[in-house]
Amino acid sequence: MWSDTPDCPVADKSRPIRNTTDPAAVELDLRRFTLTATTDQQHFAWLARCFGRTNYLPLSPGDLAALSNAGEFVDKYPGTHLFREGEQAQHAYVVETGQVELYRTISGRRRVVARAGEGTVLGDIAMFRGEPYISSARALGQVRAFRFDRDRLLPVLLQHPVITLRWLVAGLSQLEATQRRVLRLMGRTVKEQVAELLLDEVDRKGEVHLSQSAIATLLGASRQTVNEALAELKSAGLAETGYRVIRILDHDRLAGLTH
Prior knowledge:
The chain is an alpha+beta fold. The chain has helices spanning 23-36, 39-49, 61-68, 124-129, 150-159, 161-185, 190-201, 212-219, 223-235, 251-256; strands spanning 71-76, 81-83, 91-97, 100-106, 109-116, 121-122, 136-139, 143-149, 207-208, 239-242, 245-248. The protein starts with 22 loop residues before the first helix and ends with a helix.
C-alpha cells in the first residue's frame, strides 16, 4: 500500500518547498506546506507522500508539478465503479478516502477478490501493460481517488526518474505486503485464517463489512468451512454476525488465535 499527500504551488511563498535532496528538509517543507496550503493543494501533498517513503529520493517541485498534471481527483458515490472488468485500462487510481471492492464475474456471479482502502493503487499493472482490467472496482461508500491518465503519466515517468523509482518501490511494497499475508495464512486452520482476515478488515467501529461468501472467496476456502469457523467464534463470544457485517466483540482474544 501507499501512504499519504502535496502539490507544487505553495501557499506560503515566503517559505517554499526547497529544491534540495536533503530528506529532512523536504519532509519539513511538506509538513509546513500541508498546514498552509489550500484544500486542493493538501490533496496533492497527500498524493506525493503516496510514492514510497518521503525520506527516500525526495520529490522536487518539478516532480510534484508533473505528478499533479498527470491526472485529476475524482469522487465516486456508493455502488459506482472506478473501472470494470474487461474494459481497456486507460487509468490507474490511488484511493485517498473510502473503501473499494474488487470483484470478478464468474458464471454470471460476482466473486469478491479483495478490498482496497486509503493509499491503495488500483489498475496500474493493466494500465502499464496496455491490457483490459482483470477485475472490477466498485465504491462501497463515498470514495475520493486520484485518477492517473496513461497518456499523460507515461511521459512523466520517462522524464522524472525519481517518480518512476518511487512508484516501483511503492508497488513492490504493496506486493510484499500481500506475500507476507499469504505466508501468515499458510499452515493455519480456517478458523485462524478467518480471525486473521477479520482483524485486517475491521473498521474503527469494530465491524467487518464482508459477506460470508466474500470471506470464503478471499481465503480460498469453502463457504461451509467459513460458516463453521464464524459459528465457533460466535460461540466463544469473540464475534457476532449479521447481514453482510461481522462485529468484533473481543479484539484481544481474537488476536490471540492468530499468534
